[in-house]
Amino acid sequence: MDLDLTVTTADLAAAASALVRLVPGKLIDPVLSGVLLTADGDGVTLAATDRERAGRVERAAVVHTEGRVLVPAKPLADTLRALELEQVRMVVEGSKLAIRAPGARFALPLLDVDAHPGVAPPPPAVGTVDGAAFATALTTVASAASRDDALPMFTGVRIRAEGDRLVLVATDRYQMAVARLPWQPTGLPVDALVPAALLAEIAKQVDPTGPVALHADRDRFALVWRRGGGTSHAATSVLDGSFLHESKVALSDVDTRVEVDADAMAGAVRRVGLYTDARGVLLLEVGDGEIRLRGADQRAGEAEESVKADVSGGRTPQAYQSRFLTDALRPFLGGRVRLEIQPGMRATTFRAAEPGETDLRYVVMPMLPPKH
Amino acid sequence: MDLDLTVTTADLAAAASALVRLVPGKLIDPVLSGVLLTADGDGVTLAATDRERAGRVERAAVVHTEGRVLVPAKPLADTLRALELEQVRMVVEGSKLAIRAPGARFALPLLDVDAHPGVAPPPPAVGTVDGAAFATALTTVASAASRDDALPMFTGVRIRAEGDRLVLVATDRYQMAVARLPWQPTGLPVDALVPAALLAEIAKQVDPTGPVALHADRDRFALVWRRGGGTSHAATSVLDGSFLHESKVALSDVDTRVEVDADAMAGAVRRVGLYTDARGVLLLEVGDGEIRLRGADQRAGEAEESVKADVSGGRTPQAYQSRFLTDALRPFLGGRVRLEIQPGMRATTFRAAEPGETDLRYVVMPMLPPKH
């Protein structure tokens, strides 16, 4: 095994950290906790897989000797990030990959590259989407997924093509987020349930000024984007997501419509939310030209706050967990939000009063009202 | 019970939060989780105690009706912090203290003020010290104390007068910090073991441009300072700290002296510290005109880094936990630090190459060297 290259430290440090976040790795298996480092004429490629997920990041480098090694991923990323110098030299010395800096030498053990399963190229391309719109939609929709690994079906985001629209949907059973945004299909129709945590990380890494390509086959889903002068990709095996369908949320009974400044309502939720019982439930009352939030807790006391609103239809009061209201309002901060309220234990929908190209809806299930 | 006042929201929010941090309160006892709010001609006073600790903060206010009530401390602090308005009105309404804002009302239950033990005035003054120097010394020395409540003796800072010097000392048995700084004694000599966590919080709250007064008697220790136009004080019961004496660290065997740039050494410790075994131990070798840090770990690999240094005396190598080196170097960042190394399992001392008025020493115990 051989390899010798010089690279901009900050650039490779960012790439190595990005890869570690895309593929956190399984500490149990030392081979799968490694990163494949490949130096060739075009630069350096970092790749890793934990069998379920795979990631690959390219960066420019001055390659003195081409080669390919497998080294522990986290020590590589941590060392590059801790270095305080412009350029760094990495060279194979015996059974180590040496990272050389003036007065310092860091030597990572070479792992058995032949024992590594390799990082497959992504499945075929199926279309492209605008980076900024996709990142915003991913961040919002992924936040509605469950973080409870005991319910794997609810930890994913379903990504599905519907003609020239891409539909993203996630729910943890108490709240649901749905985004529809334009895309350019170029291959087979896509329909995949993708881990929300991975998508939330990818949303941070994609270049918002460029496109993101979607790749998919029956078993795998991948996203490909350009960043830092090279191509990055993240791939994952997919679950069956057909159980998860946004049309299952019936909105036939909407009898109260409210339009309100999202920031004003979020501020009131934050304050009145300090006065809630152990369930964190507060009451939303609909009045003339205003909504009123009420909370009460035996220890803290009681609170009420009114927010100016345009109200039409009935005066159905509802109760919600305050943290779900906070989540539901977040995507609409900076503008006005429209609430569609149904009576009884039926869902309330939040959407922008003036939607852009991305149609985003946040659905919250009500709770039994607090006892006074 | 009565009380009616108007106050600058941000100002009272800061005061209530400061008090909650000085006296975190015991949730078990609702009375002791309350804050005594006293409005009189001069303004408003917030006071709390958990029997061991006590705190008191004054602020200016427009008092409409003088009075004194007891309300839950944390909801008061959280509500004031969440309000987005300049001025706030607080008024007793029936069995509640109402916090009134346009369109909103927050009502805290009134607790039984007669069941509260009250907050005693601080013990007699014993001297004053410069706020900035004292805060820096407290922060550094408190960080050397143990956070393990199972060893209460090691969770304190001993504060002791030695003529015109105030001596602060703390240790968790593996590291020790000692600061000597000028003070103006005005009463009995002080010698108290004070909880380090409280002192670290006070160090954040004192005004660095003003003096801090020390108050003490046999059972209690208090600090008094001015902030935000009012006087604050924090008091605590004390432990016997006579077991804790900085002269117990023998420095008779120093045979190696090293002077080095603190930032350069801290950077090397941070990087080489990534390559340490489960104990986190790295080796310090003393060479000609340099020191060399070495670390090795079976998984991560091995590292060495040299830092230019002025060396005199022997060439005793030593091993340390990297996190203790990081702590020991922190107070000296931005300047040069002097290491005095003893052979064997005897302490190494860190002090500034050019000390200011405060003489600060950090003592670190070595570890058995890592096996290679």
Description:
Two copies of one chain form a homodimer. The first copy, chain A, is α+β, with helices and mostly antiparallel strands and 372 residues long. The first copy, chain A, has three domains: 4-115, DNA Polymerase III, subunit A, domain 2 (DNA Polymerase III, Chain A, domain 2), CATH 3.10.150.10; 125-247, Roll (DNA Polymerase III, Chain A, domain 2); 250-364, DNA Polymerase III, subunit A, domain 2 (DNA Polymerase III, Chain A, domain 2, Roll). Chain A has helices at 9-22, 73-82, 131-142, 196-205, 262-272, 322-329, and strands at residues 4-8, 34-40, 43-49, 53-59, 62-65, 67-72, 87-93, 96-101, 104-109, 125-130, 156-162, 165-171, 175-182, 184-185, 191-195, 211-216, 220-227, 230-237, 256-261, 281-286, 290-297, 301-313, 318-321, 336-341, 348-352, 359-364. In chain A, helix 1 runs antiparallel to helix 2 (73-82) and helix 3 packs antiparallel against helix 4 (196-205). The interface between A and B is medium-sized, with 34 and 34 residues.
Q: Could you write a compact summary of the structure shown?
A:
The structure is a homodimer of 372-residue chains. Chain A is an alpha+beta fold and 372 residues long. Helices cover 17% and strands 45% of the residues of chain A.
